[in-house]
């Protein structure tokens, strides 16, 4: 005991002794019996050769050959003969797109993938800014093409652009449909 501890009252010495006993008990609880086993396992892992894990081959059950009973009938994925013969041709009609025209850059993307991010007036002409999925922003004007359905910009307003698309259906042939791209302020 030190001189200071001899002069301390008995209550302080009792508290110090209890604190020392709890500290010793707490430190003893940190010693885990499984740490030696853990160290042995880690050492074994470190000494095993690396490389690819072993390949487990799974035996697959043998397949049985099945015969398709309806192979002589019409394919459900093709139109009936009557429709295929009397339907419109993809290359005919007043609304058929010009397939010889060089495609514009925004025709690689569907209209759902394109975003209208802004409009502005340049040289007396309204211009729209379109963001594509590849991260580019392209300026377009009325008459430009965009989308995979031969869409052509018909009108540009301050908040939207109107596009006329051409779609092909077997019975009717080429048809026009009007769609719009609108500035969405919530979708940054």
From TrEMBL:
It comes from the Bacteria. The keyword Signal applies. Pfam families: PilP. Residues 1-26 form the signal peptide. InterPro entries: PilP. Keywords: Signal. This is Pilus assembly protein PilP. It comes from Halomonas campaniensis.
């Amino acid at each position: 005991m030190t001189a200071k501890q001899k002069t301390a009252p008995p209550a302080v010495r009792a508290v110090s002794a209890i604190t020392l006993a709890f500290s010793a008990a707490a430190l003893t609880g940190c010693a885990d019996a499984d740490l030696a086993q853990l160290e042995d396992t880690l050492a074994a892992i470190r000494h095993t050769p690396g490389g690819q894990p072993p390949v487990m081959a799974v035996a697959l059950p043998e397949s049985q050959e099945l015969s398709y009973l309806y192979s002589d009938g019409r394919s459900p994925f093709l139109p009936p003969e009557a429709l295929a013969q009397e339907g419109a041709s993809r290359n005919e009609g007043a609304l058929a797109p010009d397939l010889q025209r060089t495609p514009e850059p925004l025709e690689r993307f569907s209209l759902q993938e394109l975003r209208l991010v802004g409009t502005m007036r340049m040289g007396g002409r309204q211009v729209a800014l379109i963001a594509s999925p590849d991260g580019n922003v392209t300026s377009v004007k009325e008459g430009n093409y965009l989308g995979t359905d031969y869409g052509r910009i018909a009108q540009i307003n301050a908040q939207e652009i109107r596009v006329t698309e051409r779609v092909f259906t077997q019975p009717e042939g080429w048809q026009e449909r009007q769609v719009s791209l609108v500035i969405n302020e919530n979708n940054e």
